[in-house]
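Exercise 7. Predict the joint structure of the components listed below.
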Amino acid sequence: MKFWWARRAVQLGVLGAILMAPVVARYEHYMSARSYEKMEKAYEGRAVGALLKGAEAVLGAGLRWEEGGVEGRRPRKRLIARARHLYGSAWSARVFGLSLTDLLAGFESAASSRGLRAALVTGLAVPLLATLVLGRVYCAWVCPMGLLSALARQLRRVLAFLELKPLSVELARADKYAVLAVGLAAALLTGLPLLHHLYPPALVGRESHALFQAWFDHAEGDMFAVPWQALGAGTLFLALLVLLEAAVAPGFWCRALCPGGALYSLLGRWRLVRVTRVKAACIDCVLCDKACPMGLKPMTDQTGMECDNCLACLDACPTDALKVRVLVKAAAPVLLLALLAGPAAAHHILGIPHYAYDKEWPQAPVLKLVEKVGEWEVQLTGYPGRPKPGVRADVTVYAWEPASGRVYDGAMRLEAAEVSALSGPRTFFGPEESRRNGTLHKFTVTYPDDGNYELTLYLTAGGVPSTLRFALVVGDPPSPWTGLGLGAGGFGLFLVVVRAVRIKRARREAHRVA
Amino acid sequence: MRVIPAPRWALALPWATLALLLALVGLDWVRQGGTGRVVRDPVCAMEVREGVLPTAEFGGRRYYFCSATCKDEFLKAPGSFAGAAPRDEHLMRGLPTWLFQAGVAVVIVLSFGLFELAARRGASAALSARFDLTALPGVRTALKSRALVESSRVLMASAFLGIVAAGLFGDQNPALNIAPLLTWTVWWAGLIFLILFAGKAWCTVCPWDALAGWAAKGSSLNLPWPRAARNIWPAVALFLALTWVELGAGITLIPRATAWVALAMLALAAASAFLFERKSFCRYGCLVGRVSGLYAMFSSVEARAKDPAVCSSCRTQDCYRGSDQGDGCPTFEFPRTMTLNTYCTLCAECFKTCPHDNMALNLRPWGADLADEGRPRSDEAWLALVLLAMTGFHGLTMTPSWPGWVAGLEASWGIGYWAAFSVLMTLMLGLPAALYAGLVKAAQAQSQGRPYGELFVRYAYALLPIALFYHLAHNAEHFLMEGPKLLRLVSDPLGWGWDLFGTAAWRPVPLITLEGLWGVQLLLVVVGHVYSLWVTDRAARRLAPAGAFKAQLPMLAAMVAFSVFSLWLLRQPMSMRVSGM
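Solution:
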């Protein structure tokens, strides 16, 4: 099991780094803008605050809390310097000054731009070298899909336990080369990079950046709910892969479809580090074949270029017949290539606009609603358009008769009520007379919570008393689909358990009779 | 077997009451000029029919009033009402003082005078009167066919899903969404009314059970319902929880919450259907089934075995075990020994399974199950008390002084809204229970050493008619005044501006005027009171044959107290739900 532990540790470390990168970026950003202390106070007791504190704890490990000779002050410059040691994502990153670009990213951007840039080449150097020497090792030890596949394998066991027999469809391994060829050809011909839409490590990085950026952006607007809506097609695609691997075809993505896997396989064709079998020690027990996550057959040496050196077969072998061998003779040309790799320069930052954090940012849009009462047109303007709970918001009403151009000059009253699923429409404001400002009627409302609100306007236009209603959303109210989805999902799970119990009970019954 | 001739007049009483009610509504309709235009009372904001109602001229305009009270108020300061902005909620005036006093007088006279004399002569023979509906041509065939019940269940289930969809995704303004009105005004009032004349017909077509049953058909675990929970405490708890959420959160005005409550019930029913055998949930867990089950003891319809001799010679007992003709009783009743309506859902499976066609659908006098000894249980007794207390509580929360009480308690104890509401609800549950417990203690002194627990449980059933008829009197208000708005909402159930049947722009008139409604409410309370007295009397005669009159005096006091409280509640003005919109 020693290789299993090592592999999981490396994979989890990489995943942690991918997830932490956007937090570290935001931390560095606040530090550079000298606003970290302010944000720390604003985020007190919130998950975003805890994330930033976590990032600081990691970055500040071993640092003395002193700056400019003042004891106890946060060592800002050194923290920023350390934060800059982790940039980017699995698609392309800079770690401790070293540029790292995924080989598929490199090949695809080279194809779509029809050219090679120096920065790209330097970023590719280390991964390329590693692949040439170690083969498809990225797939087994680095790519987050390795963890997802493992998760899918565990799910298969759960499904089997729940009596939902998973299928075992086998796809041809060669398919992935076709995917790679088509993708690269498309990039070359149309200039459109497509493959990163189907490449798990790129997706994990992109979704993590999207989620954390939206999370922090919302938090800057005083909305602290997790913005799950920021997750998009990438998460769906990954979830679909896990579901398909669990229910239909185990490991199919890495084995048969992944374009990155295809590329790494091709480049790892002449790898120097290989798993080899000592024939004399082998007892033909097939345990290694069963253990291989890629579905290869180490027992009969049928590994070829697909092997990703995960070393699961070594863990499985009861007689230590499988060994890792380094082919020294073939090393020379590869080492030559290694000289090409030099220190890399920064070439990318998944950046955030560098606004001052003292301003309202992101800018709040304005809400404008128009209603007709007979010949009269009533315009209600809300600022901010999506107000925050607990913060004073303006409501301005302007009423006029478009036909005659006459402006309404009667009295106007406004009432505001919260409309929520379990506490009734509760009026918390008014009805209150407007403050007049020329032809405008102004109200100032402070909404108590996130939720749906209704503004009721009373006015007497054209001699007729009228009541107008305007719907308004404050903060981030939940939607009925969330509850419906959770409820249906929970009930579905309950049904599966009931079914499993029935099947097991019937089997036991049949067993007893027989 | 010798058939005892029983006077048939008792069978006619329910229908006579129904005819009287309809006559009241019809007379009122004619008197007020039928389908007039809808106008709005400027004082209480109620919608009224333009007819011979009280009217007044002011500033060259004619104003219409729900009652003389509103007119008087208007005439004191016409200017302040004439120009006021319209309101959405209207305050319905309660019984006028003279009517309230007359009602109290009638209740007291009936309790201690007339009725006591009448009861002494006894009318037990009338109670055994039955009319077997299956003797009519076609009735047994209809009950034995699956098509009738199944098709009505399909209809109800699709209506149910439509309402849930409307509640979740329709406009959240309760005046534009069909879900709140149909659920809380039409269904809940109609359900209780239906029990009087058709027993638990709702359970027969219940969409919760239908959907759950279809889903779980053939794939249930068929576990036995836990022995410790084989009582109706789960249903009592659910009923209290629903009342708490319904009145505390005001979900009757929130379409989405209405839909969530409906879905939660569906989840409970479906989970039970997948886990437990037959319809365990209907028998032990369902609050609607248990509330209507207790009320159904009063109902004028029953399903019973026809001839006990046929049953005692029966060896197959298909009605309980089931056969290829149908299921065994889904609520674990055995028709051979079934003497009460409480747990029978009128699903008519026993009509299908009985190989001897020995099942009968009887018309019977009201209160037939309550008059006999029955099988009193403490959980049922408590549900009867809870029903009485909670229907009163329901009315109390709609009075205009209620928000003041909650706010006062919040301020004086320094607690939040939910805590204050819960305290008041507990109080409202505890007070009638304490009063009842005390009076039972007084009755025990006169009951020749009967145990307290037995008296407590037995007399509780006598509270059911008062609870049932106050329930009806209260809901008559919702049903007759607000119910017609359904005509408009069926054309645009989600509030999305549809006009499916061309009725979206209608402004339907209330079915009755305020004065007519008062008459209906008074009639209902008095009828309920009379039946409670009668049940009390019979119980007292059984429990204390020697001194029945003295023994029932404390109980009479309880009945009078509860009926006068009902009348007092009806006298209060009520904030109505969506009437003004």
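Discussion. The two ends of chain B are 62 Å apart (CA to CA).
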